[in-house]
């Protein structure tokens, strides 16, 4: 049994913490919103950050963004954790902050991993997340039994920051692919073609991708998706927009040219301005359908 502190009991953190408890670990939970922490049966609710990290071997964080993560580690976790504690940040944040935090942890004698996830709230609840991890092999080996409980796959992607790097590359590809699938279906609609036929052919042809076969943005086509549920997230447009912002920052810092990623960022940004931020990102098809025709 491992003694774990879990910070951030939101949409994702709640399921992850529950799965750790179910597997027999001792979990202390802390969230700025106490009601969220209290809703986790079998957990000890910590009154503050200090109480959460006291006496634990592993600290896991699942917070909204880089600012919150930086503040929590610098103010509480680095200062008050037990000697030899392992830190695992599962939030999606920028590569630079992840590297800075790992270096600060190391200088204080702690091991730290960046371990963002893919798989959404369903994956968090079911314990089938995919973890993309940055850090040392030794720290990864210590964390592996916990990844195995919360997820179906964990890949050590490289040194500190590599997990965040892979996460934003993946999500930039996803963002572009969802727009491509939406445009394919809207063109088919305008040509008077059956969407089911496009799905049947492309899901076994060269247009195949996850946005088509697993997450088709057309209601009634393929497996049940957010499109069948009025685009309730799922993965909200606002979170996709956040990840594309991180991808653009990383591209600029690394000197990579990503024009389609940038164009996708602009599309999701406009969706937010038009009030689609809380809808699933696959609702981009509404925007494609509503676009005014241009000359080829
Ligand atoms: P959320 O907003 O539901 O949960 C975040 C929680 O952190 C909130 O309950 C908030 O009160 C708490 N919090 C903020 N600062 C805190 C602090 N200093 N101490 C303790 N608690 C604090 O967000 P979420 O959907 O659970 O996402 C969490 C992270 O996972 C984000 O970085 C997101 O990008 C990433 N992610 C989300 C999904 C998804 O589908 N929701 C998928 C993959 C990755």
Structural account:
- The chain has 296 residues and is of the alpha/beta class.
- The chain is built from 13 helices and nine strands.
- The strands form two sheets. Strands 3-2-1-4-5-6 form a six-stranded parallel beta sheet, with helices on both faces. Strands 7-8-9 form a three-stranded mixed beta sheet.
- The site of nicotinamide-adenine-dinucleotide (NAD) has 25 residues, from helix 1, helix 4 and helix 6.
Task: Compose a concise summary of this entry.
With 296 residues, the chain is of the alpha/beta class. The chain is built from 13 helices and nine strands.
Please give a handful of descriptors for the protein shown:
binds nicotinamide-adenine-dinucleotide; 2 domains; 296 residues; alpha/beta; 9 strands; N-(1-d-carboxylethyl)-l-norvaline Dehydrogenase, domain 2; 51% helix; Rossmann fold; 3-stranded mixed sheet; 13 helices; 6-stranded parallel sheet
């Amino acid at each position: 049994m491992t003694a774990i502190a879990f910070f951030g009991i939101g949409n994702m953190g709640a399921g992850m913490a529950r799965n750790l408890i179910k597997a027999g670990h001792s979990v202390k939970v802390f969230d700025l919103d106490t009601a969220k922490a209290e809703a986790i049966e079998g957990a000890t609710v910590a009154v503050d950050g200090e109480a959460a990290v006291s006496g634990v071997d592993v600290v896991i964080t699942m917070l909204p963004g880089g600012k919150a993560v930086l503040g929590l580690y610098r103010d509480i976790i680095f200062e008050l954790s037990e000697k030899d504690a392992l830190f695992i940040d599962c939030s999606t944040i920028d590569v630079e902050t992840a590297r800075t935090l790992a270096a600060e942890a190391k200088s204080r004698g702690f091991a730290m991993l960046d371990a963002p996830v893919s798989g959404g709230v369903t994956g968090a609840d079911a314990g089938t997340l995919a973890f993309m991890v940055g850090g040392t092999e030794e720290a990864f080996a210590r964390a592996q039994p916990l990844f195995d409980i919360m997820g179906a796959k964990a890949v050590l992607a490289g040194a500190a920051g590599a997990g965040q790097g892979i996460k934003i590359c993946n999500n930039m590809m996803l963002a572009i692919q969802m727009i491509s699938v939406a445009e394919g279906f809207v063109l088919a609609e305008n040509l008077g073609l059956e969407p089911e036929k496009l799905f049947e052919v492309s899901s076994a042809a060269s247009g195949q991708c996850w946005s088509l076969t697993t997450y088709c943005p057309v209601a009634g086509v393929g497996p049940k998706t957010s499109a069948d549920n009025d685009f309730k997230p799922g993965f909200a447009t606002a979170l996709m927009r956040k990840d594309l912002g991180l991808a653009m920052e990383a591209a600029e810092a690394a000197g990579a040219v990503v024009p389609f990623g940038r164009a996708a960022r602009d599309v999701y940004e406009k969706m937010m301005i038009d009030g689609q931020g809380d809808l699933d990102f696959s609702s981009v098809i509404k925007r494609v359908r509503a676009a005014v025709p241009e000359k080829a």
